[in-house]
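Posting for a labmate who doesn't have an account.
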Amino acid sequence: MLKQILEAALLSSQQPLSLAQLEQLFLEQERPTHTELAQALETLAAECADRGIELVEVASGFRYQIRTNVHAYVTRLWAERTQKYSRALLETLALIAYRQPITRGEIEAVRGVVVSTQIIKTLEEREWVRVVGHRDVPGRPALYGTTRTFLDYFGLKNLDSLPTLAEIRDLESLMPEFEFPSQTNIPAQLSDDASSVPSTETRQ
């Protein structure tokens, strides 16, 4: 029954479930050990090898999700299209993810353009970034870092799970599942060339 209970709970939950949460499914006298839970989860993950879904561990716990190679087909069932973001927002998010903690001024120094207030507001409203402190310099500018929600959204267990910069080909591949074909590093001055993602930021 252990696998069946875990599978049912994970499929019915709208959020990832941690080991502690999964343990609470059982009465104390019947509660499996951490080892038994881990083994059952490992077996469930292995059983997904040839299926269109996979069991993954992200920052907040375990969840079932659609495999990347079939994601485009499944999304045709959804009436609401996946929200797209401007290249400016993706560049800002990438810099925060890879260089955190980082100030808005430092982001602007790398990108060579002003970061609009709306971009920071959008990232904070999505709960992908938050203020983690302040730089000890005049004005004490806010330092930005990513959140657990950011890790969960992109299917990451921790920041060490981020693709290396050498694996990133195009910033648009940040959305929506962090698929990164191989290519080059993010340059010191990020490219401002046009993309298929509509930009909301005016550039000089």
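Reply:
Got it, the structure tokens are right above this. The first strand starts at residue 53 and ends at 58.
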